[in-house]
Amino acid sequence: MSVNVLDEGILPPQLTTVRDLDLLSVTTSGPDPQAAYARLQEQWGMVAPVEIEPGVPAWLVMGHPEICAIARDETNYSRDPRNWRWHRDGLLAADAAILAYCPPEPRNASFHHDGETRARLRQALDDALAALPEKAVVEYADTVCTRIIGELPDSGPLDLVADYGVKVGFLSMAAVFGFDHATATRLMADSMIISKLLPGALEARQRIGQVLMEHVRSRRGTPGRDLTTLMADHPGLESDLEVIDSIAVPVHGAASFVGAFISRTLHLLVADARFAERWGRGRLHVDEALDEVLWRDTPVPNAPAPRFAMVDHELDGKLVRAGDAIVLAVSAANHDPRVHTGDPWDEVGNRSHLAWSLGPHACPAPRQARLITRTAVQRVLRDLDVHLAVSQQEIRWAPSPWARHPVSLPVNYHRRAG
User: Fold this and answer.
1) Would you say residue 7 has pLDDT above 60?
2) I need a labelling partner for 300 at 20 to 30 A (CA). Which of 5, 131, 363, 417 fits?
3) Could you tell me if 110 and 118 are in contact, meaning their C-beta atoms sit under 8 angstroms apart?
4) Which domain of life is it from (predicted)?
5) Confidence band, pLDDT 50/70/90 cuts, at residue 151
6) What is the pTM of this model?
7) Mean pLDDT across the stretch 213-220?
8) Number of helices and strands in the chain (H, E)
């Protein structure tokens, strides 16, 4: 791929020459994400320079066809963080939050690799997911929901994010991998320390590694009906370390985004007047609410790991240098008028949303994530009568550059009879 010089002979904008960039979190933490994307597009076009966090720039790609082309191209766009020049040139602070997603030495998981290595590691996860019955996923999630709801008093205040959505997401995903409730709860606590960059993150990471190692070894001796057993026996994984790394990424990463999916869907049904009324009148099914979230305001607006350019090239009039980070704004792409016109007749049967991404690094478990989220939402609606305890205007959004969900969703509830 070659660099195209603009007709005027002026060098296109590049990451090292632009200043005063917006943080990526402006697209996730405000009341109207699409307005934030639109402002960036008005200034820059479909590719805009942003900062993932202060001092860490990246290109934000917002067009549907552009994202599709990049996501499918492992030759020119890598997921291996060793190809990021901010690593190579030592430009990252030791406590940079992005290190949780892009460590200098990647895990032995498909998430961080390309080509044959990615294909081999990903095949093991895909095969294990295909072999796990969907009924078992629902049972795991329902057991978690039963425990959490069962421990609540009959009525009172409740935060549907911290006290329910986040917990159900993590504990259900951990259960799918065969962790008992007590161990999963410890893993969740340590995962929170790491994701929030709290003191003791290094020790928390070491504890998680030890738990995962013990779990994999125990499953070799005592198989269970879970993903860890299926992956530990897979011939494509060549060592216990590869098994551990292949389950560490979904246990930590996927669980957090399932929690966001649950929280965002509950927000839609509880706090959005249009949907609350339709739900109350029986005109809205839970699956319709899930589709609405995935299409209109996905819980993962920006794909949670950048790509890294392998060659210098021009993209939408910007000069992308080899080693630049590229973030795919899938939520913006879902609203690209080239695929989403707003005409309800055009939307019938439209399956072109990118909530699960696409290409070789597409989400491996969209069906499982949807089953867990549907189960979690249905249990709240079935077992609890909930009413928003604050105004819609008081709800604040998480500052994460990757996930979109309320910081908290305070409700008052009472347990339904029967």
Assistant:
1) no
2) 131
3) yes
4) Bacteria
5) very high
6) 0.91
7) 92
8) 16, 10
